[in-house]
Amino acid sequence: MTKPAALITNTVSDYRREPFEMLSREAGVEVLAWADGGISQLEAAQRVAEGRYRAVICGLGGRVALPAGYVAARRAKVPFVLWASLWGHPRTPAHALSYLPLRHIYRTADAIATYGPHVSAYVRTKGPRGPVFEAPQSVDNVFWSGPAEPIRHADFQAMFVGRLAREKGVAVLLRAWRSSGLSAPIAALVLVGGGPIRARAAATGAAMLVGEADPATVRNFYAGSDVVVIPSIPTRDFREPWGLVANEAFNQGVPVIATDAVGAAAGGLIEHERTGLIVPAGDADALARALRRLHEDPALRARLGAAGRDSVRAYDHAAWAAGMSRALAAARAGRPKDGC
User: Fold this and answer.
1) Which string of DSSP letters, residue by residue, matches 58-71?
2) Range of the structural domain that residue 33 is part of
């Protein structure tokens, strides 16, 4: 019987479950999710070292999962595929220690699958010997484009979805909203999600805080909104790898304002003046101008939203699984036909 390939990752989240299952069916991949409690990072590597798998795919998460998985693959003499999400190395002291080992893995991996063109460009600066492929970041397009019951609190509604944290640019968004001149009852800013600066956001009184919400409710908020804002800022230990909120919003035909620190903007899904507007990270004035512009131009909102809906169709789970499968095949670990 043909051995499976192993995918070492942190967790099988709701938005990863379907694409992981698709990859398992199409490429014979077994997922080893060390944060879900079934296996530790070192136990996953040990299984690889024992020769249970024909190849290893490993992401960048975890303290030891990546280096241990890489060493185990080399010990077992099986191909190693890196699943890369970074488009800039974090600048903390701890990450400084990991730079050289990670650069070695970039250079010697048998193949690399990336989140998109922005990550591929960064990876290529490290001199990889193996080929680089893109596995587009995806959501369940069928669900997110499905019928919704719009939730709207004003004639013009802007929406933020995600963790209320500094790196997500929430404080910048609140400053921009206040300076934009948009306010109740003609306009509303809705924040969907929880996080460490929720109390600070509530204290400003500038936005309506919804808190955590189930996917169907989030979809209803998208349907009732005129623009979704992704105001992420780069920090010493974070740069937004992608921003799946953009995929979700586009599926409902809602345009996006994003900063240039958002992976979906750097990676091509959010295109300035085509599917959304892109502003400099941390620039509250530029963000305020973009909000006012969309408020004042319904035709622009409609054009951007329609283009976003068309563009996101290519970012589906099948495209992600195909990209990962191509990386496996290039590493000479594709699934043999007929089990041979």
Assistant:
1) E-S-SSSHHHHHHH
2) 5-138+316-339
Residues 240 and 329 in one domain: no
Rounded to an integer, what distance in angstroms lies between the CA atom of residue 69 and that of residue 56? 7
Please check whether residue 161 is in contact with residue 139, taking contact to mean a CB–CB distance below 8 angstroms: no
Residue 56 to residues 81, 132, 190, 234, 279, Cα–Cα distance (Å): 6, 16, 42, 31, 39
pLDDT in tens, 81-115: 999 999 999 999 988 889 999 999 999 999 999 99
- For residue 199, the domain's CATH number is 3.40.50.2000
Q: What is the C-alpha separation between 155 and 105, in angstroms, rounded?
A: 51
Q: Is residue 244 domain-shared with residue 271, that is, in the same domain?
A: yes
Amino acid, res. 323:
G
Q: What is the pTM of this model?
A: 0.95
**E strand intervals along 75-203:** 80-84, 111-114, 132-134, 156-161, 187-192
Cβ–Cβ < 8 Å for 207, 183: no
Question: Tokens at residue 82, please?
Answer: 């890196």
CA distance 268 to 121: 12
Q: Output the CA–CA distances (angstroms, integers) from residue 77 to 13, 44, 213, in the order listed.
A: 30, 16, 46
The 8-class DSSP code of residue 147 comes to: -
